[in-house]
Amino acid sequence: MKFLINIALKNMFRNKLRTFVSVLAIAFAVIVIVFARGLIDGMIESSYSMYIHYDTGHIKIMDQEYEQKQRLLSLAYTVDGIANKSLSEMENELLKLEGIEMVIPRVKFGAAVSTEEELVQMMAWGVDGQKELKFTNLERELVEGRMVSSGNREVVMGTELLRRIDKNVGERVTMVFNTAYSSFQGATFDIVGRIESNLPLLNKDLVFMPIDTARHLLYLEEESTELLLVTDDRDKAINYLPAVKNYLSANEGERYLAQEWREGSSFIQLLQVGERIYNFIYIFLLLLASIVVINTMVMIVNERTQEIGMMSALGLKKKDILKLFILEGGAMAVIGSFIGSIAGGTLTYFLSDIGINYGTAIEDMDILMTTIIYPNFKLEHLIFGFSLGIVITSLTAIIPAYRAANMDPTEALRDI
Amino acid sequence: MALVKLISLEKIYQQGKIAVPALRGIDMEIESGEFTTIFGPSGSGKTTLLNMIGCLDKSTSGEIIFAGNSINQLSRNELADIRRYNLGFIFQSYNLIPVLTAFENVEFAIRLIDKHSKKDRRDKVMHILNEVGLGDMAYRKPNELSGGQKQRVAVARALIKEPKLVLADEPTANLDSETSEEVLQIMKKMNEELNTTFIFSTHDPQVMEYAKRLVEIKDGRITKDQRRD
């Protein structure tokens, strides 16, 4: 075997240009795979994180009716406690369930600010400032001022939203909104913080205010439009969900709905399907690159027909000839895949720091995705690209190798 | 006991719907240590006969007995084993592996046998290369050798495993007469010293001069079989 490896490696350098082209084709495919995997992983991770932070939590509890009307920011279907217990008692009971580490209440409603030119519409969130800072990335994105504190009539807004209403941190803003009784109300707030984020929702649509202030202004009791449960591990949330559902149905029948984060968004479900489809695309891509290798190997077999006949005459068996050619194709696969995974990894590592700005391409899409996507550099992506490159290319090298191994030695020796 | 015994050997090639007979009933015995030349015009069946004896091809009918065993029913792998351990081949176009040195090309044949230590292998290869006069060119690649030197490497490769039988298909066809003479001298020497059996197929009168036995073949039949002292 060692001897066959030695010959296979030496054979690779017989026609250096041809070997170089084959190796380059494999390397290029592996670069694309490693980079695409990093990019898609980064995109998916970013989306998962955004959806979990700003939409679903790990488990989201809401009124059954609210699920249909949440896009309308309705205040008619709230979570207001369970079985004659208050919302805070309900939160405490939820915290006792296995895996639940935090309960985050949010009151979401529509609001508007009138400027000289236009009525700027926005989405207002009544939140527990400290919990939000702990759970989301807001700490990093709060570039000026501070987060809202309970008991105060104050707001935090995104940079773009502040620009549109022509206000700055430290100034005051008057907002109008509909209360839970559908009456039109107005209130003035201190602007205490500014958020600068790649997430369009945070930058141009959202205004945070203390949840107690929001409840007071909206004439809500101790209510939330939704409760987000944070578990010790997002991937285990699906395991904790049945206990949450049991708790809700045992106390309140079918009134409340609990959804695991994956169920909450069709975009996340789409990404998950996409993740599987991409694996097929990677294999297809490598098969394309393998055509170059097959072509090279077919040429090699044709050129070395007499040599195959000679080796057969010396007593080399069919399986040895098969091994010899697979080893040669395999060696090209190893070199190409190695170069490809290192180059692809380097590119991913470099861009994981800088990010790729999708800018306006996704800005207006109704999805929670940041405008700058950071490819995810992971060693497993390099190993995946490297292994897939070797396996697929070596497998395709079997086709010409099999042809060589099956050659009739007398026919092969006759070949000129 | 004859080393090789051919009994009513026939080979018919099928070319489309046409059956082309290459051998039409060959009966022949070859004893150990013979230096036999098979000659005849092109297309007479020399190479086909050599391929049959060399276990590279199977006959259409008849029987081949090699070292007392019939090889007709053997599988492709079993035939490869016979070639690996018992037969040496020398080809007209040398058929050396261009990426290997002369040493490695010769070593290739005994690497397949797998019974020698690294040191034994090295000693054996250098010994045989010295015997064919290429000891100082052991680490040259085929493209750095002349035609005669390449054929000497091929001879060394055929003889390194001390086979029972060496088959040489037109071994001097690409060599000038002086080089042919040198190569034939080496083979003759090996035949005498090691009692290795040689069978040549050739047109070359120079090769025929060396033969102890001349077998003429025409249209797939033996037309003359003459032994010389």
Structure explained in plain terms:
The complex is a heterodimer of chains A (416) and B (229). Chain A has 416 residues and is of the alpha+beta class. Chain A has helices spanning 2-12, 16-56, 64-69, 87-95, 129-135, 138-141, 159-164, 200-205, 211-218, 237-252, 261-264, 266-303, 305-313, 318-354, 360-363, 379-405, 409-414; strands at 59-63, 100-114, 119-127, 142-145, 154-158, 172-178, 184-195, 206-210, 226-231, 256-260, 356-357, 372-373. In chain A, the strands form two sheets. A six-stranded mixed beta barrel of chain A has the order 2-3-8-5-7-6. Chain A has a two-stranded antiparallel sheet with strand order 11-12. In chain A, helix 2 (16-56) packs antiparallel against helix 12 (266-303), helix 2 runs antiparallel to helix 16 and helix 12 (266-303) runs parallel beside helix 16 (379-405). The two termini of chain A are 29 Å apart. In chain B, the strands form two sheets. Chain B has a six-stranded mixed β-sheet, with helices on both faces. Chain B has a four-stranded antiparallel β-sheet with strand order 2-1-4-5, covered by helices on one side. By secondary structure, chain B is an alpha/beta fold. In chain B, 35% of the residues lie in helices and 29% in strands. In chain B, helix 3 (102-111) runs parallel beside helix 5, helix 4 (118-131) packs across helix 5 (147-159) and helix 5 (147-159) runs parallel beside helix 6 (177-194). The relative contact order of chain B is 0.20. The interface between A and B is medium-sized, with 22 and 27 residues. Chain B: GO terms for molecular function: ATP binding; ATP hydrolysis activity; transmembrane transporter activity. Chain B: Pfam families: ABC_tran. Chain B: This is ABC transporter ATP-binding protein.
